[in-house]
Amino acid sequence: MTRKSAIVLGACVLLAACGTTHENTGAAGPSSAAKCGGPSGSYTIGMSQANVAEPYRQRMDDDIRAAAAAVPQFKVNFADAAQDNSKQVEQVDNFLTQQIDLLIISPNEATPLTAPVKRAFDKGIPVLVLDRKVDGDAYTEFIGADNVDIGRQAGQYFANVLLPQGGKIAEIRGLAGSTPAKERGDGFAQGIQGHNVQIVATQDGDWLRDKGQQQADAILKAHPDIQAIYSQNDPMAEGARIAAQNAGRADLPITGIDGLPIEAGGIKAVEAGRLSATFVYPTGGKEAIDAAKKILLDCQPVPKTQTLGTQLVTKANAAQVYATLNEGK
Amino acid sequence: MTAELTEAPPKRRDILAAVFRFQSLFGLVLVFLAAVVYSPSKNGELLFLDSGNLFNVVRSISEIGILAVGMTLVILIGGIDLSVGSVLGLASVGSAVLLVNNDLGVVPVVLAVLAIGLGFGLLQGVAVARFRIQAFIVTLAGMQIARGLARIWSGGQGITITYGDAPGQAPAVFSLLGERTFDGLVPIPALIFIVVAALAVLLLRVSSFSRHVYAIGGNEKAARLSGVPVNRVKVLVFGICGLLAALAGIVHAGQLNFGGPNDGAMYELDAIAAVVIGGTSLSGGRGSVVGTVAGALLVGVLRNILALNNVDSNVQLLIIGLVIVLAAGLQRLRPASVS
């Protein structure tokens, strides 16, 4: 940016800040304008991640890192809560001590993180909540995909494409007690409702490949007549594929969810034919940095909720989806 | 031997003994000073020394600290308790279910959950003492059992605690656990931790129970022969450890307004780390609660200063691992005569 355009932009920003009121400007509620220093400032963003052990969450961090690298005013501090609510509370507190300018958080669980997120928000720090929500509305914007909807689309794929005549299937679920496991399960049930698709076996695979294989082994022994497996994520689906092969059912259709655009991810697995389909669960990392730019650099309001759409990945479009999602990386 | 001849060596030994006895206190002071030196600052103010930040550190270690106090007793008798993290999870689920689904008051809920923890610990103690199964195995099983119970009791779902008078809501007083007192500065969990630690120090100072605990850890056979009620003390120690794990679970649920069936995973290892850094010998008989408290604080301060400097979380694991090894290494250097 040239100096002249910077001055012009700065002036516009100043005018805009004086002339408009933000929807969330109020006595109690903090204003995103309060933190907005325009494009000439420099900003520290705190990113609190529920855990980086899952490839999906590592990818979310990577997406944020890549998008922020294109914004010279941004510096992002990353923290990993290792699936521990208490630890994540501590991290948000540490970010507040550091006096960050904006908080991005992907909470491990909603309720435990509500209070610290509110503390940050009440201090006037804009908060972007990714993937999993917090309770109440003390945050600036929620960005995430809809697990129920993705589950529903997976169910519809079974009902309409894989088993239009109906049939028996098995479901391998994520970690019991985790919100996405419930939502992906509920959505799937809605998707197959009214069709003759019957879930004859349900087991928890804890999101893990080896656990997925182990559960699929047992399911295939107990129900050799199943015609497909719905797995709530790609790694468990890959495990189920190994089990199916060992059971002499190499052609058994298996679907996953996540569709991570990485070498070891679900899209490549679909391309290689190991999975029949997967559903992209977008990380929202890039969208979060876009929102941060709007708030901190452009002094613009952002919507309270941004729902990210999913995408069905089959062999037909896998290569193209992979390329699109990795653009600019 | 004359007095003059022996005067010098015991003195040196006394100093050495003090250093080893309070190795974690010295370590804590060192880490604290390093944290001040390496503290990032904003507007000329050291962020680490900000009182809010210092209390954040104490709050963040309070649950692990409560577990570690119980763990110290168990390790002093030469045992180990791997179940405390799962018992914490069970207690947090239990608190939430009883408050929300069963609509009980805070006092009966706290008593019931503490009783569950105590009972769980006592049972493990009986298995260790009466049936002579190794503590490692008993509590390894206990860890799975408590986790399973937590998942079953919660129906596999985390339970959100909301406050109010309506049915299904918890009395607001329970939410105090997540709050701060003295001008919104001192977190309640930190106070509970301090009280627990103080009571444990007292217990290990004045009672015959203390002598029994150290005697069993030092040499069980000798303790038995000299009339120490070994089995009873063992059962009691595991009971106390379970009780404290349940207390930590109650604090956990109150702080987070949530009972999570998967919560507390790996906390047992953090608690053991605090005990080891605190200078308590894993073979039993040597160590102190004060050391454990200092050990827990040391880890908390270290984690805090690393986080404030944005050290990568994986590197943080590495550094804390090295500190554990260092602490255990110091133990081996300790002269046999110093205890």
From TrEMBL, chain A:
Keyword match Signal: yes
Keyword Aminoacyl-tRNA synthetase: no
Identification of the protein by name: Substrate-binding domain-containing protein
Ranges for domain Periplasmic binding protein: 45-296
Keyword set, alphabetical order: Signal
Main location group: other
Cited InterPro entries: Peripla_BP_I (IPR028082), SBP_2_dom (IPR025997)
Lineage: Bacteria, Bacillati, Actinomycetota, Actinomycetes, Pseudonocardiales
Domain of life of the organism encoding this protein: Bacteria
Family, per entry: Belongs to the bacterial solute-binding protein 2 family.
TrEMBL record, chain B:
Membrane topology: Multi-pass membrane protein
CDD domains per record: TM_PBP1_transp_AraH_like
UniProt entry tagged with the keyword Endoplasmic reticulum: no
Record flagged with keyword Transmembrane helix: yes
Single annotated GO MF: transmembrane transporter activity
Key words of the record: Cell membrane, Membrane, Transmembrane, Transmembrane helix
Top-level taxon of origin: Bacteria
Subcellular location(s) per record: Cell membrane
Transmembrane residue ranges: 15-37, 57-77, 106-123, 135-153, 184-204, 233-253, 265-282, 315-333
InterPro entries the UniProt entry points to: ABC_transp_permease
A GO cellular component entry from the record: plasma membrane
Main location: membrane
Name listed for the protein in its UniProt record: ABC transporter permease
